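Reviewers asked in the last cycle whether our approach scales beyond single polypeptides. To address this, we selected a multi-component target totalling 190 residues and predicted its structure end to end. The input consisted of the following lines:
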Amino acid sequence: MELLKERILKDGTVKPGNVLKVDSFLNHQMDIPLINEIGKEFKRIYADAPITKILTIEASGIGIACIAAQYFNVPVVFAKKAKSVNLDGEMYTTKIESFTHKKVYDVILAKKFLSPEDHVLIIDDFLANGCALNGLIDIVHHSGATLEGTGIVIEKGFQRGGDMLRERGIRVESLAIIDSMTDTSLTFRE
Ligand code: 5GP
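The resulting structure, written as structure tokens, was:
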């Protein structure tokens, strides 16, 4: 998506540890017209998929998922990071290691919000090593729902997450794939 790539080049900054900071338009301050175009693009890509629910994870995925959901006309459900898990059988649970915080979270989703009839699109802001997406995919599989695919705003293609998921046959659609980045240069996959 050209508009997104131009914005990353203009306003993104590279931090130590292979972290791209895009907090002036995506992760802290949010540029709604841009995110609206992102939502439209996900709908264009998944126009033929019978999506019934968009799944994301708190916090950064929620705003993007909500704007996209208006084009799909379906609810958004977001997985929550929990400090402790109460295993009462009403929740799907999984563990996710945070790329940016280097912590392992228990992640929960109430069973009543995802069922075998659902066709799920997973949306998230970044894809790096794939821990977040793997956790969400795990939840979809436990629920018996059909995973239609994933929609990612920025994939760091030099980390292995995206390619590993594609090798498993999972549909991964990323609006910008970064092949390399340094303090002074950033290249996208064509
Ligand atoms: P993964 O689980 O694929 O390793 O990392 C994905 C998650 O880590 C995303 O949900 C995102 O919040 C965060 N993340 C990974 N890499 C970056 C990055 O370069 N910049 C920012 N802002 N977040 C990132």
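Residues 155 and 163 are 10 Å apart (CA to CA). We regard this as preliminary and will revisit it once experimental data from Aim 1 are available.
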